[in-house]
Target: Signal recognition particle receptor FtsY
Amino acid sequence: MSFFKKIFSKEKKETLDKGLEKSNTNFLNKLGKAVAGKSKVDDEVLDDLEEVLVSSDVGVATTIKIIERIEARVARDKYLGTDELNAILRDEIAGLMSETNSGEATDFSIPSKKPYVIMVVGVNGVGKTTTIGKLAHQFKSKGLKVVLGAADTFRAAAIDQLQIWADRVDVPIIKQQMGSDPASVAFDTVQSAVKLDADVVIIDTAGRLHNKVNLMKELTKVKRVMQKVVPDAPDEVLLVLDGSTGQNAFEQAKQFTAATEVTSLAVTKLDGTAKGGVVIGISDQFQIPVKYIGVGEGIDDLQVFNKIEFVDSFFRK
Model:
């Protein structure tokens, strides 16, 4: 039984296909070379396939799981042709990913309790501020009132960039001068959101990872100060990762999940890279849902991550 069914709109699926085009082409070329001149899936083909998956940034641990699933299928079906390998990979990876979490796309569920506070973390340059801007646009498009908080006070450029997005989306932004206490900005933002009866608050935070202890202290302080206004804040801690960095994104995920309680992930810049396989590995290895993927420059190109549709696009012929 195939896992695949079309649940995205045609336009979203076309954007996803285009965004993963480099990853798709790179993988199919490697797979083609691995099975060239071979008709049957045997141990040699599986060894080559393992190398293809690892070199496509799927990650060693997830690759081993995939190979084991295909080995079991080979043992069960006795003969599998190499011409079937791409379709088998699609089904087995979709099955693997759907066992840990449903393949259905899931957005942030904004409850009736207001404001819903999202704290966004990630190193500089991963597309953190752009992700915040696009998220704000999505929430506003649903009729929700959004407030942004510029708590990345380490760089003036971060505050300026968030201001540009606030102007573009036409939502209020709370900010202070560069070098201000990030926790103070977060406090002001949440307090303003309560006064404005806002539905959603999105807080940008500093993207430094040179010292995990300091990062942990800073993020803990930001949380503690926000909780003086909204007791359970933040409702989400969204970690943004740059998909084009491949295995480095794994390392960042490890570092940030050790430093703070990350509840969801966004993987950006997939349209400009052949390293899209990293999403398969991250989705499998971290017990944290990938909520969003960035597959283009457009304001609507931050997509809710759907595992089934992603795998379908990744292995599309």
Strands lie at 116-121, 146-151, 173-174, 200-205, 236-242, 264-268, 290-294, 302-304. The CA atoms of residues 46 and 68 lie 10 Å apart. The two ends are 19 Å apart (CA to CA). The first helix runs from residue 10 to 19.
